[in-house]
Please model this.
Amino acid sequence: MPHLTSAAAGPTSTGVRTGLGVPGYAHPLLAPAEWAELTRPGTPLDWVVLNVSGGGPGIRPDPHCLQAAGRLRNAGVRVLGHLDLAHGARAAAGLFADAHRYADWYRVDGFLLDRCPTDRAALPEVRRVVTTLRTADAGTHIVLGHGGHPHPAYAENADQLVTFSGPWSAYRWSQVAEWTADYPPDRFCHFVHSVPLGHLEEALRIARWQGAATIYFTDRTDRTDRTDRTDRTDRTDRTDRTDRGGRADRTDPWETMPGYWDEIVSRIGTGVSE
Model:
């Protein structure tokens, strides 16, 4: 059995509504079916991340992204802009300029702050960033994309934290930080790739046991076929696609829809029995 959760966290995770948080599909021209599917009535979406150009909003409004964001808003789906904190190395001026473009051009409802630091020393700067992003609208939805468990104080500075982002091989044996039991499951998100269909129900149970109400599971992997690769230079900011020999060997598992999309939508919609 995997080490899933502390005893204190288990009882709070039963009967919780699970929703999908989409980390960001490829550009609508490259993934038109994916973006269209997100507006299907009844899809249990918490939010969808819009990443126009390799980690930001681009240098001018993109008509295809404007249309995709507009359709999602009309369907009542929250749209988040993607901002890369670069583990705390991103200059604040550029970060806020990107946030302004997202808000002005695409009317986003909030932001996913990707590659967010996890240590306590970086907390004051992250708090300043979040406070500034909420200056114009206190209802701005903020998701901190740590990818692992940060210092507990981060939980007081955002609406949600991404406390796992990685492959199924790590997720199935993962442990949850005990401090997360002090917060409701709707404060936590898990992104897991390389999940086989046969383990989908197990993955959903792990999310519930660990107290994460927003999830995104996919059978797509972060490995690409060396014999049939597409050079997507506009995505390299988001993934490490180069090995020591200089050859691309990784891709973004979040760019395309899971092969079992209908299955996961159905299971989340009806709930998973405990």
Q: What stands out?
A: Confidence is low (pLDDT under 50) at residues 1-14, 225-248. The longest strand covers residues 160-167. The beta strands are 19-22, 45-50, 79-84, 110-114, 141-145, 160-167, 188-193, 214-217. The two ends are 16 Å apart (CA to CA).
